[in-house]
Design goal:
Oligomer: single chain
Structural class: alpha/beta
Number of helices: 12
CATH class of the largest domain: Alpha Beta
Order of helices and strands: HHHHEHEHEEEEEHEHHEHEHEEHEE
Number of strands: 14
Protein name: LacI family DNA-binding transcriptional regulator
Strand content: 15-25%
GO molecular function, one term: transcription cis-regulatory region binding
Keywords: DNA-binding, Transcription, Transcription regulation
Pfam families: LacI
CATH topology of the largest domain: Rossmann fold
């Protein structure tokens, strides 16, 4: 029995094959009643998508530089214009997204929804007037964000876990594995008393994966090597000083780069007296060792995910959100040394 094709379904329904193809992609450009009629007939005839043919078509589309297809919106909710891009890791997200979008034939345009003079309704109307269907939501300025949006009009991918409601398709560095990798790398350098110093808000915006992985690894440490973590609401010198003096970590995992100056006030040198490792370093980092989170790859993969949603006509809040995780990698630096 021959395979049922899109043209077979079109003939049975009595419409053009391009309408059937669009309906099978769940395109919003096809009326809902027509779409349901086409889907029912396709199911009745036993139509099944040919993955090999789809792969071939994709190859043909991407063999040469694609023509401009549409614009993707990058929405920044920080109180300052381009505020999210102040953070090097987030800037890498944008860079990766920008160049991957261009490779696929999209433009990527920034929209500042954090503008106090721009109402959300006005911002959404601008997106719709520009015929923007795909949206990348930059990381939010605060953890535990509940975000209102006209979800049913757009395909949306967000970065990280700072939006807790609704649950959306998201992409992130694999923070849990990152922390495991970081601790194990430090252990190979001979560090046993590994301390963790974090802002609680930073851990929260990563869905507590850093602390979770720290405690998971801490289970196997000998009692004499355990160091209770220091979580702070704000960075303060005196609590940090007391923590270091009381618990004597050999190396500190942290998310801030100002600890060398604090340790200098305590007459401690890095890395001679104590090591430091950052959970996030850039490729151009001249001093700190730590984890490079592959922000460029995260941005590229965010566009790939969004492109697949646009092609399928997937809009609204997903019933089963997808979490796409990208591994980080250890980057050597001068802030640690081999001690055993």
């Amino acid at each position: 029995m021959s395979r049922v094709t899109v043209r077979d379904v079109a003939k049975a329904v009595g419409c053009h094959y391009t309408t059937v193809a669009a309906a099978l992609r769940n395109s919003t450009k096809v009326a809902e009643a027509t779409k349901q009629k086409i889907l029912a007939k396709a199911d009745e005839l036993g139509y099944r998508r040919d993955p090999y043919l789809s792969a071939l078509n994709s190859y043909k589309r991407n063999k040469e530089n694609p023509a401009f297809r549409a614009t993707i919106g990058w929405i920044d909710n920080y109180p300052k214009r381009r505020g999210a891009l102040y953070y090097p890791g987030f800037e890498e997200y944008f860079q990766g997204a920008f160049y991957r979008a261009r490779e696929l034939g999209y433009g990527l345009e920034q929209f500042w929804f954090g503008d106090p003079e721009l109402r959300l309704e006005r911002g959404i109307s601008i997106l719709r007037a520009r015929n923007i269907q795909g949206v990348l939501l930059a990381p939010q300025p605060n953890p535990d964000t509940h975000y209102d949006f006209e979800w049913d009009k757009f395909s949306v991918v967000t970065f990280g876990y700072s939006i807790v409601k609704p649950h959306l398709n998201l992409i992130s560095n694999h923070q849990f594995r990152l922390m495991l990798t970081l601790q194990r790398k430090l252990a190979t350098l001979g560090y046993k008393r590994i301390g963790l110093h974090l802002l609680r808000s930073h851990d929260a915006r990563l869905d507590y994966q850093l602390s979770g992985a720290y405690f998971a690894e801490d289970v196997d440490r000998q009692t004499k090597d355990k160091v209770p973590p220091l979580f702070e609401k704000v960075h303060e010198f005196e609590p940090f000083k007391a923590w270091v003096e009381n618990h004597r970590p050999e190396v500190i995992i942290t998310n801030t780069d100002h600890l060398p100056s604090w340790l200098a006030r305590m007459n401690m040198k890095v890395p001679e007296d104590i090591g430091l490792a950052l959970v996030t370093v850039t490729k151009k980092e001249p001093f700190f060792a730590g984890m490079y989170q592959n922000g460029i790859s995260i941005g590229q993969s965010a566009v790939d995910l969004l492109d697949s949603m646009i092609r399928r006509g997937q809009v609204g809040i997903p019933e089963k959100p997808v979490h796409l995780l990208i591994d980080g990698e250890w980057q050597d630096g001068k802030s640690v040394r081999k001690i055993r």
